[in-house]
Hints:
- There is one protein chain.
- By secondary structure, the protein is of the alpha/beta class.
- The chain folds into three domains: 2-15 and 370-463; 47-120 and 278-334, D-Maltodextrin-Binding Protein, domain 2, CATH 3.40.190; 124-276, D-Maltodextrin-Binding Protein, domain 2 (3-Layer(aba) Sandwich).
- Helix content is 47%, strand content 15%.
- It has helices at 2-8, 18-45, 60-74, 89-97, 163-175, 193-198, 214-222, 238-244, 286-303, 328-334, 341-370, 372-394, 398-421, 426-452, and strands spanning 48-54, 79-85, 103-107, 116-131, 155-159, 184-188, 204-209, 231-232, 249-253, 269-281.
- Strands 1, 2, 3, 4, 5, 6, 7, 8, 9 and 10 form a ten-stranded mixed β-sheet that branches.
- The relative contact order is 0.13.
Amino acid sequence: MTAGTDLVDAPQTSPRSAASKAALIxxxxxxAILGSxxxxxxxxxxxxxxxxxxxPANSDDLRxxxxxxxxxxxxxxxxxxxxxxxxxxxxxxxxLAAGKVDLAIVRGDLDVPKNAQAVATLRKNVVxxxxxxxxxxxxxxxxxxxxxxxLAGRKVGVVGRTTANVALLKVILQQYGVDPAxxxxxxxxxxxxxxxxxxxxxxxxxxxxxxxxxxxxxxxAASVKDGGAPTFLAIDSAEAIAQNHPVYEAAExxxxxxxxxxxxxxxxxxxxxxxHHIVARKGISEATIAAFTRQLFAARQQLMTEFxxxxxxxxxxxxxxxxxxxxxxxxxxVDGEEKTFLDRYSDFIWWGLMxxxxxxxxxxxxxxYLKKDxxxxxxxxxxxxxxxIAQARCSDSAEELDQMQKDADDILRDTLHCFxxxxxxxxxxxxxxxxxxQFHNAVADRRALLIILPPNQQKSALRVLAGPxxxxxxxx
Length: 476
């Protein structure tokens, strides 16, 4: 019989079942997605280093930034700093404008780069304008300067080499109707200011710095001669200057700020102030700047005892009309709208879960696709078994029944393999069980009939060996 040969030669299931392959593929996909999520979390939370331009050398700003850098490292903070030393606030602003650094310490009264956004106010600086005791007596003594308007035709020494202080002096002179061209302006390096003042190289002096600036205090002390106290020139029009130049604010120098006896100054003096800002380059991640701002104000509390200037750090102006627009990350921290990890990455997590679900569905479909041939083959074998029932009822030979029994055994073996591999369900196994039972009954009935037939009608009846009755398969 060719049918028996075809059944024996039917393709067998491979050693690694289709179900195992599908499970491995699904597991691999799930692990790949999980690995991607873990990798994304690692890259999101790994330390970020920001370059910050600050200067000049030995300045208070540089020392504060260096202290913050060490504090961030010791606390294993998310954001780290890498100071880039410059010649001053102007050079720092240029570095930020060129995109060479991520952060910079800039003066608010200078041209702030267009790509700069405020992160914090590092400190406020006040302008001290004073006249040393008059040298000489009688007719030889020059007229005493008591008002800013009297500076016309005089020499004014400016402490510090930055051109920003000269521009500041010109703003003040113009407010009082003094033509800056009629004032001789002499600049001194901060380290040389005390000696220059002792030599009385100018009639009046200007210094700009924090209220407790040691440089300003030393310069004022150097102008004291023979016990005479310097005269502080009040900038009474400070509010008007602030109106015309929003980068400045009206301020006051408290009495005794610069020490000495008597107090310097003896009374409160009106003046103007400007700020040093920590600014960030536009485009830096909102989450990164928010984390930096949070770390900055946390470190401020730790550094106040060692660096009093750290106490001057303030939050930036987050109003829409702020002179320097705030960075969205800093504004989020100040306004209490800082996003958490889940807020920032909830979309990625959601899509990751959706991908896992899709991967599971795809794995199930692929597993079913791999079992398609097995199901088709098993369906063919079951149909063959049903055809064998009819053949068994018409068989006239015990040998033919034996061959059918062997074919049925092969079909049974293939069906059990398919069921174990998940290619067929329990319902299909039940249907096969019914067909197999009917086949065994047909074979048994035909064998009994062949035994009782006359010898001339059964050529091989004496050689018939009763095949074992396969028990019915019970579904598990």
